[in-house]
Each structure stands twice: as C-alpha cells, then as structure tokens.
Design goal:
With about 220 residues, the chain is of the alpha/beta class. The chain has eight helices and seven strands, in the order αβαβββαβαβαβααα. It has two domains: about 70 residues, no CATH class; about 130 residues, 3-Layer(aba) Sandwich (Rossmann fold), CATH 3.40.50. Helix content is about 45%, strand content about 10%. It is globular and about 50 Å long. This is YdcF family protein. It comes from Emticicia agri.
Length: about 220
C-alpha cells in the first residue's frame, strides 16, 4: 500500500471529524469513554485550567492491561479516574459512570447519574478523541439537547495524533478503521434517530470509500 496515499485520505477524514468549537467555562467536563488515554489527560488539563469544577468519566467497557496505562483490567471510567488523579485532579471532583458501552449510552447513563446525585449541572464541555468530536456533537444534539454544551478534544493534527497514538501502543490501522466506522455512523445513524444529520462533503465521502477499498473497515456498524 502507498502510505502517503493512505495518509492523504485519512487526513481528510480526521479534519472533517474534528469539529472545533471555542471553549467556554462550564459546570462539568463530561468525558466519553475511549481507548485513548490522552482523552483523560486533556480533561485533567481543562480542570486544572479552571474550565469546570467537576469531571464525569463515562465508560463501562473494560480495557485490558496496558491499554489505558492500567496495570489491571479496568473500565474506561476507572482508568480515566487514575489518569486524572495522577494529573492532580482531586478525587472529590470526579464522578464515575461505569455502565455505558457506546456513545448513546454515555449520554443516557450520565443523565441517570446526574438525576441520582441530584446534580443540577446545566453547562458541559464534552470531551472525546479528535476524530470522534463530530459524532459526539451530533449525538449530543439528540441525547443531550436539554443542556448547553460545547465539544472539545486535545488539539492535534492528523500527524501529531497518529504519533501520539503510536507512543501509546495504538496502531494507525486502528485509528483509520475507527474513523471510517465513525463516518459510516454519521451517514446511517440519523435515520435510526441516534444523532442529527451532518453534511458530509463529497471529497470526504470519496476518501472514506477509498479507505474501505484499502481494507480499513474494521469497525463498521451492522
């Protein structure tokens, strides 16, 4: 395979997925589960910079040893908690949601947690990986529409993000397959009511189709 060509197509998807909104202070930083530990690093950074007084980590998927810098299998929320504590976030500022196993459930289970804890948060910063920001936004517009929110991720280019992932043991192939899977979901999930429709430029869709032809289809929804 021509790696330069793969990177060209993948960069188009990355730049499209990374919907960027200006940060604003909030009541809570709401972090959706992920296999990428830099998501927790960024949430801790936002907390330490005073953007919100609380963090919610949502994610019930149990990750194997080492995948989120963990030494024993842990849920995404639990592993993110450890990372945030190591970054100086006090435990009393963190809430854990350990049931969600997909993006929609992150929102549903977190709203349940807020109700159970009688927390009247109204403004949120939603944090995810750069290439999941557009789908996070589109899903929140359905599942979290009663709240004010912005979506955010650690600032990265495609190249710097891939380098960061490789340093964490996350392969480029996994990242690209995740990006094609997310674009497919943006296309088909509006009809299921899971998220709002988003315009997908022809150039981005063509890049997606080419990446599928090259074998990056490991995370397609059925």
């Amino acid at each position: 395979m021509d790696e330069n060509l793969i990177d060209y197509y993948a960069r188009l998807l990355f730049d499209y997925h990374f919907l960027q909104q200006p940060l604003q202070k909030a009541d809570c930083i709401f972090v959706l589960g992920s296999h990428d530990p830099s998501v927790a690093d960024y949430a801790a950074q936002l907390y330490n910079e005073g953007f919100a007084p609380y963090i919610i980590f949502s994610g019930g998927v149990v990750r194997p040893v080492g995948e989120l810098r963990n030494t024993v299998p842990k849920t995404e929320a639990e592993a993110f908690f450890d990372i945030a504590i190591s970054r100086g976030v006090p435990a009393e500022a963190i809430l854990l949601e350990n049931e969600a196993t997909n993006t929609g459930a992150n929102f549903i289970c977190t709203k349940k947690l807020l109700q159970e804890k009688n927390l009247n948060f109204k403004r949120f910063i939603l944090v995810q990986k750069p290439y999941m920001i557009r789908r996070t936004y589109a899903t929140a517009m359905v599942q979290f529409k009663e709240f004010d929110f912005v979506v955010s991720a650690l600032p990265d280019t495609y190249d710097s993000y891939i380098a960061r992932c490789l340093a964490e043991g996350i392969t480029k192939e996994r990242v690209i397959s995740n990006m094609t899977g997310d674009l497919q979901r943006l296309k088909i999930y509006p009809d299921k009511g899971f998220l709002i429709a988003m315009d997908i430029p022809e150039e981005v869709w063509s890049a997606y189709e080419r990446l599928l032809e090259l074998g990056f289809e490991g995370r397609m929804a059925s």
